[in-house]
Design a protein that fits this description.
Elements: H1 23-27, H2 31-40, H3 47-65, H4 70-83, E1 85-91, E2 97-105, H5 107-114, E3 137-145, E4 166-168, E5 177-180, E6 190-194, E7 197-204, E8 207-212, E9 220-230, E10 232-239, E11 246-252, E12 257-263, E13 269-276, E14 285-293, E15 296-301, E16 304-310, E17 318-324, E18 326-327, E19 330-331, E20 333-344, H6 360-369, E21 379-390, E22 393-399, E23 408-417, E24 426-436, E25 439-449, E26 453-459, E27 469-474, E28 483-490, E29 493-498, E30 501-508, E31 515-522, E32 528-538
Antiparallel strand pairs: 1-2, 2-3, 4-20, 5-8, 6-7, 7-20, 8-17, 9-14, 9-20, 10-11, 10-17, 11-12, 12-13, 14-15, 15-16, 18-19, 21-32, 22-31, 23-28, 23-32, 24-25, 24-31, 25-26, 26-27, 28-29, 29-30
């Protein structure tokens, strides 16, 4: 059985008193905190304890925002609410109280990220922190008392300097990491030089396991920098004490195969998604990531989404690595782990973007700093608050028809309504459009379809009946929520980021100048494709 990790932050017992309906006004705290606590603990027996936590956050909140101007405080409140997580941690060990966890981006982190700059909303130069940039969080583990009462201890939670829940580059083997053999006996790890740095080397004639000793983690990602010299690697999130249950990402480079699956406590498995042709080579370093966020399970290779599925079987559990030997031919596993990170769900993936939904100038600056687009002058072409098409057929709404360009970055959020079950429908941001008689004869489009896939389509032949490029990959999320698309088309290559994560990297496309639009292919008059906050830069 796994050892249960003890929380490393404060354990507090809540004072029982009457709940006050107008809690946010009473304690000068944001309404979102009251709503999250109330929805997490709706039972009447927790009302008094909820009130105690409104008081506790009031102390934290006033200490945090006291250094802000009124304008900064308004902007930071939005960031606080977008990064706030309130979690029911279950009963305490004595069974007499309830564990509560909350976390959010701290003022210090936010000011560091924005440089203290805040400008009015709805302007192109808005540099306030967006809802989806997650950096440092302050965190508290608290205890909601039962009817026996108690006292509230006032303490400000320590603020982490990084987003990581845990990280190591294996200069040493941390105490939080447990390594076991096939009989689940704890064994020492072997450190060996690798790529100029230390790495943890795992050899296994049958299999070995490695896990981080905390089974209370809920929405998080397990990320490893790894070289598979031989054998097979299985990554698990929300794993159980049984060493079976959880969500698995299996990588078999020798067979060029990977999968996502869910496993129950009896070790019975169901494959949720799989793929061949993973371009992950034996003996080469790669970064693998498995993320669980709500019922969304997503696997990444080198920052690029590989597999995605939805399942709600498990909500919390251990992050675990399994190292399996090969059976045909029989070879022991030999796998080097150069780094391991456990981060909150939504934290940036290696190779991902963090400023993609900021003001367009900030997004371009990040792309230039990362070397993704050329440095130097980038010409701002246009920004549209909203553009859409609604109806039955294949249509598009043209944009900037007098400003065709070849080398561009275009970005915006897509909201879709597909209203014809059983029929193929799609919603796209269109670029490099060459029109004939009012129709798009050539186009480079990115978007989503009714199969739940992210798509990239290049039609470079006005007289052809097939596409020169048609790439697709499962969307990591629901179709009924907005997703942010950022397309980079430079020369004869195109890359696509969705919600900051890389889906398609330098796909070969036709190099041509063209215009832009928002396109819908549908089979129902109520189907709709809408792009919001759509903007375009040219590097021509």
């Amino acid at each position: 059985m796994r050892r249960l990790g003890l929380p490393s932050v404060l354990m507090l017992v809540a004072l029982l008193s009457l709940a006050i309906p107008a809690a946010s006004a009473q304690y000068a705290i944001p309404d979102c905190f009251v709503a999250r606590v109330n929805s997490t603990f709706p039972q009447e027996e927790y009302w008094a304890s909820r009130d105690a936590w409104y008081r506790q956050l009031g102390v934290e909140w006033n200490a945090q925002v006291g250094v802000l101007t009124p304008q900064q405080r308004t902007a930071y409140t939005d960031v606080f609410c977008s990064t706030l997580v309130v979690v029911d941690g279950g009963d305490s060990e004595d069974g007499l109280s309830r564990i509560v966890e909350w976390s959010y981006q701290s003022v210090e982190s936010w000011l560091s990220q924005t440089g203290g700059r805040v400008t009015p909303a709805n302007t192109a130069t808005d540099t306030s922190a967006p809802a989806n940039t997650d950096t440092s969080t302050g965190g508290t583990v608290n205890t909601l008392g039962n009817a026996s009462g108690g006292q509230v201890s006032s303490a400000t939670p320590a603020e982490a300097e990084e987003t990581d829940i845990f990280s190591t580059e294996f200069d040493t083997i941390p105490n939080e990491i447990i390594i076991q053999d096939a009989d689940f006996n704890e064994i020492p790890g072997q450190l060996t030089p690798g790529d100029g740095d230390s790495a943890l080397r795992i050899k296994a004639a049958d299999f070995s396991t490695l896990y981080y000793d905390d089974n209370n983690l809920t929405d998080y990602a397990l990320e490893v920098r790894v070289r598979i010299n031989s054998g097979e690697l299985l990554m698990t999130v929300r794993g159980g004490d049984d060493f079976c249950s959880g969500y698995d990402f299996g990588v078999y480079p020798a067979d060029d195969y990977a999968y996502l699956r869910v496993t129950d406590e009896n070790c019975d498995t169901t494959v949720l998604a799989d793929v061949t042709g993973i371009t992950f080579l034996t003996g080469e370093m790669a970064t693998l990531r498995l993320e669980a966020s709500g019922d969304q399970i997503t696997a990444f290779v080198d920052g690029q989404v590989l597999l995605s599925a939805q399942d709600d079987s498990y909500t919390s559990g251990y992050p675990t690595l399994y190292f399996f030997s090969e059976t045909e031919p029989v070879r022991e596993a030999l796998i080097d782990v150069a780094a391991l990170r456990i981060v909150p769900a939504g934290a940036p993936v290696e190779g991902g973007l963090t400023r993609y939904a900021d003001a367009h100038g900030e997004a371009i600056a990040e792309l230039q700093a990362l070397g993704i687009v050329p440095e130097g002058r980038a010409t701002f072409i246009f920004q549209e608050p909203s553009a859409y098409f609604e109806g039955d057929g294949s249509w598009y709404t043209p944009l900037a028809q007098s400003a065709p360009h070849t080398n561009i970055v275009i970005a915006g959020s897509l909201d879709v309504t597909f209203n014809s079950p059983g029929e193929y429908e799609s919603c796209s941001i269109m670029t490099r459009i060459v029109s004939q008689n009012g129709s798009a004869a050539q186009e480079l489009s990115v978007g989503v379809d009714s199969d739940g896939d992210v798509i990239m389509v290049d039609n470079d032949d006005p007289d052809g009946s097939t596409f020169s490029t048609f790439e697709y990959r499962p969307l990591a999320g629901d179709l009924d929520v907005s997703h942010h698309f950022l397309l980079i088309a430079v020369g004869n290559r195109a890359s696509l980021y969705v919600d900051g994560q890389l889906y398609f990297d330098r796909i070969k496309v036709d190099e041509r100048a063209g215009t832009y639009g928002v396109g819908l292919t549908s089979h129902d008059g109520d189907s709709r494709c809408e792009a919001n906050n759509l903007w375009l830069y040219s590097f021509d």
